From TrEMBL:
It catalyses: dihydroxyacetone phosphate = methylglyoxal + phosphate. Keywords: Lyase. NCBIfam families: MGSA, PRK05234.1. This is Methylglyoxal synthase. The active site is at 60 (proton donor/acceptor). GO terms for molecular function: methylglyoxal synthase activity. Pfam families: MGS (PF02142). It comes from Aquibacillus rhizosphaerae. Its EC number is 4.2.3.3. Substrate binds at residues 8, 12, 34-37, 54-55, 87.
Length: 138
């Protein structure tokens, strides 16, 4: 599965800790992240992560583009609901695309725990069916 990891500045420590806790699960998947988040997780865990641009410089949009191509399976995005972000339109667009394409999305630690455990239990395998249908069309 392809998993995107994103966190706003005040939530980065939480996502780093989450990534340490679930490193064995995450290591089995293809990981993507916005620039700064990805670097912090790499530094803390050594996980292999493809880093896009930093969020304010287009990273959210790059991940959104993968979603629009049905090329992203899970998004874990620890948002900071208490701080205004300069790239708020990009953030809203990313969340919207998750809803357009029915991509499992966790915007906080509580939901991320459920999502990652579901992933480990094989409950997100339906994404493979979506992939095979997409491949049939092309
Ligand atoms: O701003 C972000 C998501 O909207 C995250 O970007 P960084 O990981 O580069 O800080």
């Amino acid at each position: 599965m392809k998993i995107a990891l994103i966190a706003h500045d005040k939530k980065k420590a939480d996502l780093v800790n989450f990534s340490i806790a679930y490193q064995p699960v995450l290591a089995k998947h293809q990981l993507y992240a916005t620039g700064t988040t990805g670097q912090k997780i790499i530094d803390a865990t050594g996980l292999h992560i493809h880093r896009f641009q930093s969020g304010p410089l287009g990273g959210d949009q790059q991940i959104g583009s993968l979603i629009a191509n049905n090329d992203m399976d899970i998004v874990i995005f620890f948002r900071d609901p208490l701080t205004a972000q300069p790239h708020e339109p990009d953030i809203i667009a990313l969340l919207r695309l998750c809803d357009v394409y029915c991509i499992p999305l966790a915007t906080n630690m509580g939901t991320a725990e459920i999502l990652i455990r579901s992933l480990e239990e094989g409950k997100i395998k339906w994404r493979n069916i979506i992939h095979s249908k997409t491949n049939e069309k092309s």
